[in-house]
TrEMBL record, chains A, B, C, D:
Keywords, alphabetical: Iron, Oxidoreductase
Superkingdom of origin organism: Bacteria
SUPFAM superfamilies linked: C-type lectin-like
UniProt keyword Hydrolase present: no
Domain DinB-like: 14-145
UniProt source species: Niastella yeongjuensis
Entry-linked PANTHER family: HERCYNINE OXYGENASE, SULFATASE MODIFYING FACTOR 1, 2
InterPro entries with a match to the protein in the record: CTDL_fold, DinB-like, EgtB, Sulfatase_Mod_Factor_Kinase, SUMF_dom, SUMF_sf
Pathway(s) this gene product operates in, as recorded in its UniProt entry: Amino-acid biosynthesis; ergothioneine biosynthesis
Residue intervals of the Sulfatase-modifying factor enzyme-like domain: 177-312
Protein name: Sulfatase maturase
Pfam assignment, any one: FGE-sulfatase
Entry keyword annotation includes Endoplasmic reticulum: no
Amino acid sequence: MKQAITIDDTILHFQHVRKTSEQICSLLQTEDYVVQPVAEVSPPKWHLGHTTWFFETFLLKVYAPHYKEFDPTYNYVFNSYYESIGARVIRTDRGNLSRPTVQDIYRYRRYVDEAMVTFMQENASNAKIIDLIILGVNHEQQHQELLYTDIKYILGHNPLLPAYQTDYPRNLSTSEKEEMIVVKEGIYEIGYRGDGFCWDNELGRHKVYLAQFEISSMLVTNGQYLEFMEDGGYQNFNHWHAEGWDWIKQQHLVSPLYWHYIDGQWMHYTFRGLEPVHTDTPVCHVSYFEAYAFAAWKGMRLPTEFEWEVASPNFDWGLRWEWTESAYLPYPHFSKAPGALGEYNGKFMVNQHVLRGASEVTPIGHSRNTYRNFFQTNQRWQFTGIRLAR
Amino acid sequence: MKQAITIDDTILHFQHVRKTSEQICSLLQTEDYVVQPVAEVSPPKWHLGHTTWFFETFLLKVYAPHYKEFDPTYNYVFNSYYESIGARVIRTDRGNLSRPTVQDIYRYRRYVDEAMVTFMQENASNAKIIDLIILGVNHEQQHQELLYTDIKYILGHNPLLPAYQTDYPRNLSTSEKEEMIVVKEGIYEIGYRGDGFCWDNELGRHKVYLAQFEISSMLVTNGQYLEFMEDGGYQNFNHWHAEGWDWIKQQHLVSPLYWHYIDGQWMHYTFRGLEPVHTDTPVCHVSYFEAYAFAAWKGMRLPTEFEWEVASPNFDWGLRWEWTESAYLPYPHFSKAPGALGEYNGKFMVNQHVLRGASEVTPIGHSRNTYRNFFQTNQRWQFTGIRLAR
Amino acid sequence: MKQAITIDDTILHFQHVRKTSEQICSLLQTEDYVVQPVAEVSPPKWHLGHTTWFFETFLLKVYAPHYKEFDPTYNYVFNSYYESIGARVIRTDRGNLSRPTVQDIYRYRRYVDEAMVTFMQENASNAKIIDLIILGVNHEQQHQELLYTDIKYILGHNPLLPAYQTDYPRNLSTSEKEEMIVVKEGIYEIGYRGDGFCWDNELGRHKVYLAQFEISSMLVTNGQYLEFMEDGGYQNFNHWHAEGWDWIKQQHLVSPLYWHYIDGQWMHYTFRGLEPVHTDTPVCHVSYFEAYAFAAWKGMRLPTEFEWEVASPNFDWGLRWEWTESAYLPYPHFSKAPGALGEYNGKFMVNQHVLRGASEVTPIGHSRNTYRNFFQTNQRWQFTGIRLAR
Amino acid sequence: MKQAITIDDTILHFQHVRKTSEQICSLLQTEDYVVQPVAEVSPPKWHLGHTTWFFETFLLKVYAPHYKEFDPTYNYVFNSYYESIGARVIRTDRGNLSRPTVQDIYRYRRYVDEAMVTFMQENASNAKIIDLIILGVNHEQQHQELLYTDIKYILGHNPLLPAYQTDYPRNLSTSEKEEMIVVKEGIYEIGYRGDGFCWDNELGRHKVYLAQFEISSMLVTNGQYLEFMEDGGYQNFNHWHAEGWDWIKQQHLVSPLYWHYIDGQWMHYTFRGLEPVHTDTPVCHVSYFEAYAFAAWKGMRLPTEFEWEVASPNFDWGLRWEWTESAYLPYPHFSKAPGALGEYNGKFMVNQHVLRGASEVTPIGHSRNTYRNFFQTNQRWQFTGIRLAR
């Protein structure tokens, strides 16, 4: 029997998630909140404002009749990509905004959080509103993961290479034995089933036919990836997609992101600062192009997202987002929600690849084996890794 | 019983295809052979040279011991994308080459054709060589389709809008009744089966599970597409992928390629010159983004390539290449051929969408319902169209 | 008789200038110090660091034997364009640096200032060193002007349009009567004469022949510029250089920088925030292209830098940097200083135009009628204005 | 006493110039007329059409009442940059036009030439019209020089490096003794004086004061330039403008245009094909940036255009266009002609440098020592050279 979730539970969960975002940022200097070194990175203060704007825009301004907007200019500043909600700062300009200040944004968070608590208490039994709040909380958890990735990029591309946290826990390698797990041919069901929260892109549970396949119990390690590099992996076009090859040549890439070859040794930037690459840690910060090339070099391939989902109960996952061979496409009978929230996932279902799993910076409780993450095939600032199949 | 194909049949077929390429160009002025108005269009003379280089490079220079290369500089000029074969003119520079002249290239064709006939006679019973010749012939047929599309682009973007052929046959609409064909749920086999020629990307026949679906017996017409345009289809972001929306806004697109709104009427450039848009002709020259948006506006969707292949015996096809919802990915157990010919298809299997069918300019005998064409999602200079599913 | 400048005077002057830079920034929020909205704007904290680095690099590290560098990574961060001094952050990346923090940089300033005072006392009678200090002080004054212009750009391009200082003094119009001052034909001497400080590009005093000309006693006002705008000045190519015309069309420019047409009225961003355009204030933030077009529309022209220098004793100047018709070229017998300081001016003497005068944000004591400022012809974020000649 | 020029002389001169343009092209293949490898190069057929359009547009369509335009679409195709005359093919698209064909354009030339001869006979005594014809003839001569430079670029950038004319005469070095010619301080007059043809930018004869200077009797040779290269001239930023340095680094330039280092030897493409660099021939195809850097390396400088004009009677010139230190600016009292012809020179007087002299491909009779040519400081496809001063 499903246990009832009370409104007090929801309020506590809301407050916990809201506080966690701020804790992630608590190690930053004010200046670290502001910058945007590349288009895909957003300034931390923007994340803090945008997640707040989400609650204000989709809940308070719509359903709380007496709510007074904190500042009307914020709608322009903190809208990410919702065409329905009006004009917005273009994405590449987020790092040009010194105002609102960090302090302004924390004030904004306080203001909205207080209004939200009152609002939740007043709407304790409104299922539709509770669902929207849960959506907002999950949205903020997604941005917590982005906060970690963006902070790593900001500090890891600063010439001073400052640590985020000198005693940040080391990412241990999994203890599993490396073996190929065999999954039998058959018709399997794919997609979310249950009555908890999930994203619209996981819905539309449906059947797929899978031929028999094998999938590794382990993620590819830095040590294995170094073998690929040392075998000339970045110099042999045979392993690469044409587009991937052009990209690595144009960008002069010869290693994963954050790796530096210094005095005869491969080092990489971590949250603890610069340190030697550990060979038995799962490789991280590789693009789909690199994951594909590595697999081709190994004479294997990446799993499809369907294979991954079916096999996932048989291996540990959650350290790295894992690239799949699957392009990001709608499931059968996918339908967009009406209104602005319909812009959440559907409009990005083209020219991206699916990642499955979760990563070391994914918030606890924010992962499922039906979760579909997605990025362009050249992105590597996320905590992405590789699992092989054949 | 399969009838034996003799070497004389092969020689005749070779000669027929080689001649057809030249016939397609016979209506051109010398100047038309030279220009490259956009990166994806190649000059006609480049196609004539490149298809010849293909036979010279992959057959004569490898297997004909006494063959003397026509001109060593041509390898640099006519290599398209084969990294294995060495350096090459970058794609965007093909239109900067006034030499070799058209006459030089026809001379090159004569030279290679004569060598090929002798070579074929000497290798009449060498199955591997015959297979390579068949491959080269199919390769040239692909370039015949490209010749038509590129010639249309060259003439259709000239301010004088010259006709290619004033009596070029009009593309009739299909006579079929418009209805939704129902295909039952089931496991189906996908991919080429037989002993004729097919491309490597069609191989690896495999099972897929399909839920029940419906697919239109007819292609979307210009008239239907005009309704979409007149209903503000290009002004409403809800129908579009985010990337498609950015693209049409940046390019200021409001109609298919070659359409011009003149004195209150929609005209389009055809091989006959500029003429009014016929409402009952299948719409042509739309990108995947536009096909997707049209389907979304209709409350329907595009078929997957698997649905298309399964349903295809039940409808007429062959007037337009038809966009599918499927990203271009390898079939299970896809493997690249060894050597340079392995670069033919596999390295392009990312960030493109599959088209199925064939078009009015596809050479006769060069279509199958397992044929997989593919282009980037914003390309529209091919003879592409739309078929709806749900 | 020239009065002797004692070392104490120099120390006081040094300290005054150093303090002034910090006072300019004292009205900023921490976040305002960090951002770089366009390539030509540098973050205020970068200016504060770079001017300090200048003293550290060209004085302390060279001439103070026991000086211990504050932080060796700063050389990479704060080098502006000195090739001789080694690698540096590329200009467009200055806004991506959250570290060193603002506080770090103030600490750096304290550290270097203290070392400098001791150093000055120890070298009180070393004329070469005193000259270098004076150079560094003038260099910092130049950056004070840039601080104002960059701060205005940062705040004036923020969607919240925050004021820099709500009671910032209004820029009064000059009280002069508008008249054309006649200067007679003759041979005049151009360039700096005296024994005070000047830049190398002012030296090489030399003769020029000037035909008789007339020059306005007044700067062009906003009101006059509005007449140009209302007469279709930005729509008529006849007034413009071809390059200027292409630029305003591509950038969609119809007014000076910071002007906004709101509810039927021209407003502009000032240090006090957004306010209506005053018609009798000198027009500001126009490019050379616009200054030229305005003059052409008036049937007049801009003065050459030689005409300006000769006529300058006869009119008030100092509110706006004034565009001249003269390209920025070396004076006869111009020679670069040896070493890195030789990179100061000479290497920029191409494809820029000369501005003469000074502006409302030029530090007091930092202007001369022989001073040659220079910018690319499309730059307008400086406090630039227009004076007509014929 | 000035001898009268009869209308028959003018007709003969017109016909001679028109024929010369076609003779320059007579060595080309049809394909060579069509291509545009870089934006600044125009296809030869465009030059042939544009110079014809000039006579049609500015004379026949304005002053010949019964003239029937050859083809109204040509106005769009062959307008170069005249905003007054309406829309035009953008410059970078000239190489995308296969139509009108070369034959069409020769037909156009015939048609306009015949109309012009009749028109000239009918207007034998109309001084204004005769002046316009002389202008058109000089305009065509300018394009003859461009035909040579553009043809050299087209053939010299083809991977086959075809010769333009295998027996094209070798450019001899001047026989002068190398010496520094001294010109005394004084007031000199600059600009065209006389009653022959000159361009508007040469008019406004005016006085300049020149200090004493020295100028070389000889152009810099390939041998001298090689010394600069071998002394690391392209690797030492001290010799270069900042903008020039960035440009050579970005473009990876280490030599003049058309130079190739092959098997340990410097070769260059000439109209005769590829051949070794002659050390005693004047260096050619250098940009202003390179000319400046060479002079800086030599411890000398380039002459100003005024110095050049004053000194020019004392040395041989005409083999190379010679870069000067002078930016291209209007002479005092420069005024644009009314109407479209006013766009001829004035609107380009910004961000370019002046060249003086003439080159080996300048038409005979088309040079004067007051002639002002001008190009952007990074252009080097013209026959440009270097003369030193101090």
